[in-house]
Design brief:
This protein has 183 residues and is α+β, with helices and mostly antiparallel strands. Helix content is 37%, strand content 33%. The protein folds into two domains: 78 residues, no CATH class; 92 residues, Sandwich (Jelly Rolls). The strands form two sheets. Strands 2, 3, 5, 6, 7 and 9 form a six-stranded antiparallel sheet that branches. A four-stranded antiparallel sheet has the order 1-10-4-8, with no helix packed on it.
């Protein structure tokens, strides 16, 4: 009986650590990083599954797998770029330092998302990619962008206000930005 208690404790501890790691990864990791963490969690569960010896353990294991799958689905949804359900409000491809033309986020939208990609290979290595958000034509910033340093990358930035904005891109790289309304 003591063996089952220790095993249950080990499973609970492993799941807490793995779930916390996957949840923490949502804010800064790529889908590949998150999948690697999820695979590690699955491996821990598979090793622990070898020691099952009761129907209760089997039920606990199956519940843990279901929780892991639900967590992974949530993580994928959280880090996936928002789709064009509301249509693209603005799109621009550029190179280097440029300001975009103004775009308007309607008052009915629940904020907005900027899907971005950048590639600095023509720069000869890692380059900076960043932007500052300005309200309309004003010259005082209202928010900031991703501030990435890499050879290439992509991601999504979320903003929660509406109105007319423009982005001042600061980069040595080739880049694309697409603005979608929030949902």
């Amino acid at each position: 009986m003591r063996h089952k208690g220790l095993l249950a404790f080990a499973v609970a501890l492993g799941l807490v650590v793995a779930s916390a790691t996957v949840a923490e990864a949502t804010s800064s990791a790529t889908a590949t990083d998150v999948q690697t963490l999820a695979n590690a969690e699955a491996h821990v569960l598979a090793v622990l599954h070898q020691y099952k010896d009761t129907a209760a353990w089997e039920a606990e294991f199956n519940a843990a797998v279901a929780t892991q799958n639900a967590d992974l689905a949530k993580v994928k949804a959280d880090i996936s770029p928002p789709g064009p359900a509301g249509g693209v409000l603005f799109a621009m491809t550029g190179s280097g330092i440029e300001s975009t033309t103004p775009f308007t986020v309607p008052g009915a939208a629940k904020g907005w998302h900027v899907n971005y990609t950048f590639n600095c290979s023509s720069f000869g290595g890692s380059g900076n990619f960043d932007w500052t958000v300005y309200q309309g034509n004003a010259m005082s910033e209202t928010d900031f962008g991703p501030n990435r340093l890499a050879v290439s990358g992509s991601g999504v930035e979320h903003y929660y206000d509406t109105g007319t904005f423009h982005l001042a891109v600061d980069s040595e790289c080739n880049w694309t930005v697409k603005v979608f309304p929030g949902s």
